[in-house]
Amino acid sequence: MTFEYAPAPESRAIVSIKPKYGHFINGSFVAGKKHFPTINPATEEILSHISLGGLSDVDKAVAAAQKAYTKTWSKLSGKERGKYLYRIARILQERAREFAVLETLDNGKPIRETRDIDIPLVAAHFFYHAGWADKLDYAGLGHSPQPYGVAGQIIPWNFPLLMLAWKVAPALATGNTVVLKPAETTSLTALLFAEVCQQAELPDGVVNIVTGDGSTGAAIVNHPGIHKIAFTGSTDVGKKIARAIASTDKKATLELGGKGANVVFDDAPVDEAVEGIVNGIFFNQGHVCCAGSRLILQESIADEVIEKLKVRMSKIRVGDPLDKNTDLGAINSKEQLVKIKELSAIGDAEGAERWSPQCNLSDKGFWFAPTIFTGVTQAHRIAQEEIFGPVLSILTFRTPQEAMDKANNTPFGLSAGIWSEKGSRIFWASQHLKAGVIWANTFNKFDPASPFGGYKESGWGREGGKHGLAAYLKTGKETGVK
Ligand code: NAI
Ligand code: MG
Q1: Which is catalytic among the residues 255, 385, 386, 463?
Q2: What are the backbone angles phi and psi of residue 467, rounded to the nearest 5°?
């Protein structure tokens, strides 16, 4: 006998969403001129209207950040800056439920994930970097490393507040001020974060948030008052940014796409590997740059693993993101859904075999059932291109070397996973995989102390940990300090 799940909806009463938002510049909300709607992708309900920032808004934000940098923030000791970061971290914890519900409404990801993963990690990033603020001399970056000034930060829609935290926390800890632009479909938690900055009495202009689209992002990138750029998003836009700053002295970190290989050897604990495969690709609807979107299975165990994976996938609950029992929420936007459908159709056309469990998907909102493709070869586009959805491409191998060759055969190099009970095999494989982050017998584990970033077209530089601080600090000759 099986029991049905009773609905367990999280109340949305805790959030109050204004009908319209402006930008957050110099410590205050200022009205925008043009607006565009932001919707709940699970229902297509319009939640609010967001300002489309233009050149003059970016100009004002950069001026505010520059002034805050010279007049206030660069004059404070690391210890004083740290106090503000601790205060922000504590307020984020106090308001965690509000942030979790708002993120789920605006993004479509399950409340279970915003509540248990996104928001706790956001607070953890502020706590971690608060601790560094007065210890930068000991970060291994030489004596008295200095901030760049104003950082321009452009973030995507897949982990909206978490990507804000990855960018804002190290920038402030190292003494930079920021102009940040959230993604067009998910600006609401960044605007609520602006309220947290006010609540924490962060000096005006230290954090500025300008909302808008790609043109707003480009205005930030090209502004002469920006000294450092931090971007997370598509490889296409990353390349545009790299071209735009090529003839300037702007520094940049770029966190771009991925096509992560999850390699399962024949000695792996199969049931645990199946959990790891599911977490690797179905976490956050597969909207994860480091997703384990290619499963590379040893041929001798392939049938067993695929069979168990199908049983496990039949238990994934797809639906209302605010329901606490939901595992897989809504696809973030209509555009993204179209892209997932197009690439999956290419998988069919190229001869891979598609399988999804039976799912009742709502007519309203944007949905895609968890999907696997078997019979995928390295030449297939679904083995090479980032789908950024709940779609797994499965390839097989016979020898460990073949597994490594297949795993490394994409233009990306962000993440990889190894499943094996042999320590020696794990060490061997982790030395052969060209990926910035490698997990062994787990997947999608994040910690602010651990640097994150990629090889090849997955980007430049690292975020998080001691390595991430380097991106925000001038060292050696650059500082002018002898
Ligand atoms: P995108 O790269 O266009 O958007 C990311 C951010 O960049 C947004 O804030 C956007 O407004 C901004 N932006 C767009 N054009 C810009 C420009 N010329 N200069 C400066 N900023 C600009 O990503 P999009 O279109 O939302 O998604 C397309 C694909 O990109 C996805 O299907 C996925 O494959 C990949 N992607 C990867 C992400 C990652 O974390 N690696 C995150 C988001 C998307
Ligand atoms: Mg939205």
Answers
A1: 255
A2: -60, -35
